[in-house]
Amino acid sequence: MIKIAVMGYGTIGSGVVKVIETNQESICKKTGEGIEVKYILDVRDFEGDPVQDKIVHDYNVIAQDPEVAIVVETMGGVEPACTFVKAMLLAGKSVTTSNKALVAVHGAELIAIAKEKNVNFMFEASVGGGIPIIRALNSCLTADRIEEISGIMNGTTNYMLTKMTQDGCEFEEVLKEAQDKGYAEKDPAADVEGYDACRKIAILTSLVAGQQADFEDVHTEGITKITATDIRYAAKMKRVIKLLATSRQVGDTYTVIVAPFLLPEDHPLYNVNGVFNAIFVRGNMLGDAMFYGSGAGSLPTASAVVADVVELAKHIGKHIELEWKPQKLEISDYRERTGRFFVRTRADRENIASVFGTVEYVELAEAAGENGFITLEMKEADYEKKALQLGNILQMIRFH
User: Fold this and answer.
1) pTM
2) pLDDT-derived band at 285, boundaries 50, 70, 90
């Protein structure tokens, strides 16, 4: 029987315990022996809960117990999670985590410690919830050079944009509904400002580049400025607005950005709706592939964590190589990326032509007193200069 510990008994941690208990028979077949949760670390007590006798409040109890081979971290946040995880790795225990904040900041460092101690650090559930994207990049797609990763990596914002598209609602109305349903936090900034997706695309970029992509270097825009009028313009263009986290190889580096994009009907991510996530990958040999599934929630995320536990159980005493060095990746300036832009402005067409030259106008009867148009392809830096020159910009959304 393999003994494990779970640090953090919240939504994901309790889900991990439930998955292990429910699927013990199939897990046992895959690992060759059963998995038993020996400890659960939490600041709270859980009187009356079946796990009450497993609760400990000091992480050292777990670190110092030689019976515990694998530790699950589902606390969230960078500290004290990082301190606890380091202690477990240094004590010779493998660790899996669902904590994207921890992985984005300390992933390379924790992988290095794991290698030194001949154990493993895994983090499948830190990106895309139940979608097996990290294992795919590390195992199935290792023969490819990954040229692009673009994804809908936040279920809250995707739910909100889907509702705005289907029901014609404004942002504030849909945000309240998402909060009432438990999809959005009371403070929704991490989701709606794009910070959550930013950390996830930084993790994926670090993995495909093999070195540290700092999330602070990723240009990030959220969905707070998207309006019902923007949605109607998108429909007129036979497109939908999605918050994308995208990383594209440019020479020996990557251009990484999180922002709303207008997707055409034939794009694989066009029909990804509700709280679902999907990640589109383009390899130089594979071509295009897409990974789709539940991006959040207790059991889908816990399922990905337990999949890591099974993998760790199969590799006790053997380190699995992960290419993620601590050297900083110099991410390309997003202003160098090229694309087309949809623009709404109060400027007249004469001024638009004098600044942007040839454009394609989009007529929307209910948007009186403004002009909507699509630019020719240009660099972001050139668009910014022209937008400043034109003035009266109401909205800009990138084409994908």
Assistant:
1) 0.94
2) confident
